[in-house]
Amino acid sequence: MILLESHSVIIQTTLNDKFTKPTSLDIQFVDYDGVRFHLSTPDRKTALLLSMNIRCWDELVQYGAMEVLKREYGSLVQAQVEPDYNVSLEIDLEKAPPEGEERDKFVESISLLKRNALAAPFELAFTTQKQLEASGSGQGDLLQIHYRDEEAIYIQAATDRVTVIFSTVFREETDRIFGKVFLQEFVDARRLPTIQNAPQVLYTNRDPPLEIRHISGLRDSEDIGYVTFVLFPRHFANPDVASATISHVQLFRDYLHYHIKCSKAYMHSRMRYRVAEFQKILNRAKAETATTERKTATKDTSQSDCLINNDPSQPHAPNVPGTILCNPPFQRATFISQVGV
């Protein structure tokens, strides 16, 4: 199955192009989860302004998003944010790293703006878990990230784990069925010896997990499901492992719905193919008609269609099975002589 990329391909491609040939720019686009971006050159061609608007920005700031972005981007983070956006980065193409591996890393880092902002609550939960593990008791605060309409991510640290809960809405009945099948595969796959160390995955429909049942305003309908990931310390034991875990878990909701849509598209294409094949069979099953030719006094050639009628219910036919029908009728004798009836 395809794994979605954490970085924005549009940002990455645009930056690489502008390093090669700086030009005026004004691009607006939308990423997963309704996150809006604006890439522009308001002052000069070599100064790119990248702005982002994300629905859950206030919650992310509460969990340390600005600290994470300043750690990753330093002076690129602008104090004056573009109107209608939450955060802005200014990239001076003249001061960027030289061409090569260093520049590639710089461009990739810029394209991970959304990922880095959403990483703040995960990093906070991982830090809290280590503190609780050292103290030997207690439970961290429940972190809530309402990143989509009617959907949210809930993160809570404990002494031996970090629990991540996704609430996801299935708009259609078929989506709910496909989602249940996919999520059951996640549960069953963990039984394989090769992936015993994978996070535990739990799925419930309609009923929220115990960790979030006390939250008011949760939806109670058949179209909502809850997916729980249980992350153990080995899943964020060092910075590299923790970074990979955050990148993959963040995109789970988009990953799930992407493959649901792909599966539906594949099934529709297969159904259309089968219908086309059945249509060919029906076309081959049509009765063949015999065609005779006659010449008129002026040497013109006309065609006559005749067939043997085995259906006495045919209109204008004698009520005798096997009656020969011809058009025009006076060609019956010619047809009989030709076929040897």
UniProtKB/TrEMBL annotation:
Keyword annotations from UniProtKB, A to Z: Actin-binding, Cytoplasm, Cytoskeleton
Entry's Gene Ontology BP terms: actin filament polymerization; Arp2/3 complex-mediated actin nucleation
Gene Ontology CC annotation, any one: Arp2/3 protein complex
Subcellular location, principal: cytoplasm
Protein's recorded name: Arp2/3 complex 34 kDa subunit
Functional description taken from the UniProt entry: Functions as actin-binding component of the Arp2/3 complex which is involved in regulation of actin polymerization and together with an activating nucleation-promoting factor (NPF) mediates the formation of branched actin networks.
Protein location: Cytoplasm, Cytoskeleton
Region described as Disordered: spans on this chain: 288-321
Keyword Cytoplasm appears in the UniProt entry: yes
Biased composition (Basic and acidic residues): 288-298
Ranges of Polar residues composition bias in the record: 300-313
Subunit structure, interactors included: Component of the Arp2/3 complex.
UniProt record similarity statement: Belongs to the ARPC2 family.
Superkingdom field: Eukaryota
Entry-linked InterPro entries: ARPC2, ARPC2/4
GO molecular function: actin filament binding; structural constituent of cytoskeleton
